[in-house]
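If you are new to this repository, start here. Below is one unmodified record pulled from the training split, so you can see the exact layout before writing a loader.
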Amino acid sequence: MTTQTITEEQLNLYQSLFRGRTDVYARYWEKNGQANYSPAYDVNWTAYNKYKSTGGSFKDFKDKKLIFLTPGIVKKHLIGSHAIGIYPILQDNTSYFIAADFDGSNWQQDCKNSIDECQKAGLHAYLERSRSGNGGHVWMF
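And here is the target side for that same chain:
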């Protein structure tokens, strides 16, 4: 897939559904077999490594700046060049969507029950299989 396969209309649709904070986003990373998401920062790595060598931590390092979530970053996520996460809780403690994560031996039935309850309440809910394939996410908009 190339960047040309994501149209502006598709990008706008995705961003209209998965709206969250734009002043920060999370980057997916792996290290020593562990996977996680952390806030994306613009960092002077030379300065940080020097700071770290004196016992400093990334948390306390001042020469870093959060990176804004842009349509270009979202497009790279959609084409698979890197995975990101958004922070759905806005500064005023509201959200445009909710995601529920279901794992374990009954995840499929739990997802179905959740979607059924959403429909009874008039909410639009959609199922996504988790990355591992051993669970599901129910998205509510």
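Two things worth knowing about this chain: The beta strands are 26-31, 34-39, 41-43, 64-66, 84-85, 98-103, 125-129, 135-140. The first helix runs from residue 8 to 17.
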